[in-house]
Structure formats: C-alpha cells, structure tokens
Amino acid sequence: MSEIITAIDDDSFTINNSNIYYDKCNIRVTANISGVTETKQLPCLFGYSFAERKDLSIISDMELICEKGPLRALGMSSFFLGQVIGAASLPAVSDRYGRRPVHLISHFCILVLGICSSFSPNYPVFLVMRFFIGIVHSHRKLFGFITNQFRVWGMVILAGLAYSLRDQSWRWVQLGVTSVCLPVLAEVVFLDETLRWLILHGRMDDIRKHLEKVARVNRVDKTHVLEVFSNIQEHHRSLLPMTLSFEVEPKTPASLSQDAPTPTLNVTHSLADLLKVKRLAINTIAMWYMWLSCSMILFGIYLTSDTLAASIYVNFFMVAIISCPSGIIFYFMIDRYGRKSTLMALCLLATGGLTVVTAIRILSANEGNAAIASTVFSCFGAMGIHEFMSTLFFYTPEIFPTTMRNVGLGSSAAIGRIGCILTPFIILMGDNIIWAPGVLLTVMSVITLVVIQVLPETKARELPQTLEDLKDWYRMTS
After folding, report:
1. Does the model's pTM come out above 0.90?
2. Angle at CA of residue 55, ends 49 and 60, nearest 5°
3. In which domain, by residue range, is 10 found?
4. Which residue in 235, 250, 313, 398 has a CA-CA distance of 20 to 30 Å to 109?
C-alpha cells in the first residue's frame, strides 16, 4: 500500500483517503480531491499473478500480456518470414549442391535450433531461433489426397502431443515438437541423393553407385540394372536437359573428359515476366490473392481454435481431423467436375462456415449453445479451406506455361506465407473486438469467390509449354 502511494508521487493522493483497485494490466488509484474524483494508473509494481503455473505457456513465462500483448504475434510471424526467405533461397542452393545435403542440413538445423529455442533465456532470443527455423524449414508441395492425409495426421498427432504435455512447461512441448527431426540422424546414413539431380548434373559415378545400391537392396543383378538404365537413357535422351554418356563399366579419367555433358538451352523467366502479358498478369494476380486469402483463413481458424466450445486441445484436434473427409471430396471432385468447380464448392463451404461463426459472435456471447454452434461451423469452414489449399497446389502449376511454372508456383506460395505473417496480428484484433477477425476473413473469402471466376478451366486440356503457347491458348479460349 505505502509503495503504491509513494509511486504516485502526488501529495494530494497521500493526504486524501485513496482507494486502490488491482485491474488486469495496471493498478488504479482513486481519491476524492476537493469534491472531484481523481484517478491515476500505475503499472503492476510487483509483477503479474497468473491463474496457472507461470512456465506452462511462453505467454505467461515471458509475460507477453497487456502492453506486451502484440509481441505474441511476432513469434509466429518471424517463423513464416523465415520461410519466405528460405523458399526464395534454398531451392537455388539445392539445385546447385544437391537435394540430399540441403535436406540433411535443413533438418539438422531444425533439430538444433528447436532445442536451442526450448532454452531461450528471453523472448528476443526465441524470436531469432524461430526466424532461422523458418528459413531451414522444409516444405513439400502437398499434391493430391495421400500427402494431404499425412499433413492432417501430423496435426492430429500434434494435438495429442500438446495434450499429453499440458501440465509441463512450454519448453518441454517445444522439445517434443522438435523431436520429430531426430530421424535426420538415420537419414545421414540411409538417404541418397535424388537420381534426377545426379542425371541433370552428369554425376555418372554417383549414378552408378546409386543404382548398384538399389540393385543390392532389392537383390537384383546390378549389371542388368545398369543395362536397363543405359537403354532408358538412350531412348529418352531428347527428354533430358543434357546429353549423358553412360556405360555399364566405369570409364577411365581420360575417356570421361572426352564425354563431358553437353548442356542444352534452358529458357527461364523472372517474376516480372508473369505481369508482361495482360491475360497472364490477370491470372497471376488472381492466383496471388487466392493464396493470400486461403493462407490467412486457414491459419486464422487454427489460431482462433481456443475460442471454441471445448478445450483448446479438443478444438485443435477437431479442426485438424475434419480434413479427412474433405480430402475424399477433393480426390473425387478434382477430375470429375474440374478445377474451378471444385474451388468454388470448397470456397462456398469455407465462406458459409466463416459467415455463420462471425454472425454468432456479433449477435450473441460466445457461450453455451452459441459456442457449440460456433465450433460446428468452424469445422465446416476448416473442412472447406483445407481442401481449397490442396486444390490450389494442384491447380496453380496448370495456370502457367512450363517455362514459367516454377516462378509462378514459387511466387504464389511466397504470397501465401506473407498471409501467414499477417494473420497473427489480425487475430490480435479479437482481444478487443471478438468478431473483427471473422469479419475480415469472411470478406476475403467472399472476394475469393469472385476472383475464381476470372481463371480458366484446365481440366482435360493440353497445358501450354511456352509463353507463345499460352498466348495461343488464351486466344482459343476467349
């Protein structure tokens, strides 16, 4: 009491009888001075008190509350910012030095950085660790039904892991999540470089060793395997970007120097080339927006799962597991009804779920039956947006010609990561206005329904190989 009055440093509050109120984020002192009620606010002089053990959450452990509340979003955004940088740099590194070393080094770095982040002494160190984890975080393109199911079950297992460690410090949860990278120690021994990369770079000795290892593991005559590969290489030489000379028996150094790979001309395009042709520019911008909105909605649903009816663990589990039936929808719709129709149906499902949840939070308190209804329709929204993302991965490469496919898909995925960076800050709006994030994400979903209309249908159509083919393709479809 005396320390609070001293901190006010105002004799008027000392002389008059003061009332002290301990609010959520500050200490409020009031006094009746000359018939007028005066109020002064102080920060929490003696620290914060928490309902649960302080180290259970990084938010309480590092006191990311009140005026430090916006810092919570930086932890997630720094990770996705690192992913944007990693997505822009690591593919080029893997093209130059090979998939295997980049894969192994990335996973080893995730393991080490994940352990280091578990012992972060303060929040700035934690942010730096998260940023570098994002850079080396491997991200495989999630095409089709099977790979989507692995992603879903990974999220389900994550919910179970978090629940099993619910009474432990957040540091143990971080270590548990990081432990999935431990198999990298076995990959150092058993994982080989991809055969395609070895072929593209003319690494004939490594190709021979690779094929001999495969033959040995499968108990097949290695001479036969080498002969089959040589025949395949001979018959499909025109499909390879360089001419390779492959013999069943190793050559001498002198003969190898005479048969050096002869590279062919590779046509590449920059990001600016996507915007030079009017129709391609429209499709590119439309695709960028769809990736942005889809990433924000999907990530936003996960981040707001703690506001649903059940516990945060059950909510997260439900939002993850709901993608199993939606994966079946994607699997059967994509070729039967086309890409655009599938996108429309899934976006309508997501938009409907978001609209109902947002309306519930605007019109009533998020309690009782309203909270249950909000949970149910959030699951519908999650079902739609999960498979909307899967369809985007499938559909985006078909929009761009072969020579621009990598830059088209890469730039779209990067825009999606930018959406993930922004989402935590949008969710913070819900601390003051619970329905504000829902309104923004719903509006973005509605706009996505309109944007889909400008894109072409690629079902059962020969895809363009070059920019000139693309121009002809658009002329035939206009």
Report:
1. no
2. 50
3. 2-47
4. 313
